[in-house]
């Protein structure tokens, strides 16, 4: 290792990022965050099934909101990649409020399902809502504030 910063050609992985480490396209952000949600849901289903088989409870009683852990980790990394300023803070707060409300609305609509699936659908709504609002909002605000 030479200690040099990676060049644009060396950063050609997925998701594509700019020189500051910010994800370049909404499609990349949605793709990675949805992949994180799927991995989270698969892990929850696996653990819930294993505990149900072991007799530690009924299947489906795990809180599906836990599937949002990997997407939130990605969103935190994306937040940190932006320079300190009002654009990133306002975009993050607005996206978080709207995404949580969307997740709660979906959870309310799916209230008849098991908590694993109700929370999983709510986590999906949160993930998509936050990714879209954050990406569009931070880019729009950054252009406005310089």
Task: Report what the structure shows.
By secondary structure, the protein is mainly α. 66% of the residues lie in helices and 0% in strands. It is elongated. Helix 1 runs antiparallel to helix 2 (69-81) and helix 1 (26-53) runs antiparallel to helix 4. The longest helix is centred in the C-terminal third of the chain and has 31 residues, at 115-145. It is built from four helices and no strands. It comes from Micromonospora antibiotica.
Return the average pLDDT rounded to an integer.
87
Termini separation comes to 36 Å
Which word captures the global form? Answer: elongated
Q: Can you give the helix content as a percent range?
A: 55-70%
Largest sheet data: none
Q: Helical stretch count?
A: 4
Structural class based on helices, strands and sheet pairing: mainly alpha
Outline:
The protein is built from four helices and no strands. The chain has 146 residues and is an all-alpha fold.
């Amino acid at each position: 290792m030479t200690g040099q910063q990676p060049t644009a050609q060396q950063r050609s992985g997925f998701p594509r990022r700019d020189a500051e480490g910010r994800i370049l396209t909404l499609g990349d952000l949605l793709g990675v965050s949805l992949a994180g949600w799927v991995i989270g849901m698969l892990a929850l289903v696996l653990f819930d099934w294993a505990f149900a088989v072991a007799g530690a409870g009924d299947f489906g009683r795990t809180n599906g909101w836990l599937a949002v852990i990997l997407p939130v980790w990605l969103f935190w990394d994306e937040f940190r990649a932006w320079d300190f300023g009002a654009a990133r803070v306002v975009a993050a707060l607005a996206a978080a409020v709207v995404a949580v409300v969307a997740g709660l609305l979906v959870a309310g609509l799916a209230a008849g399902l098991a908590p694993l699936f109700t929370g999983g659908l709510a986590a999906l709504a949160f993930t998509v809502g936050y990714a879209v609002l954050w990406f569009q909002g931070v880019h729009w605000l950054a252009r406005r504030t310089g």
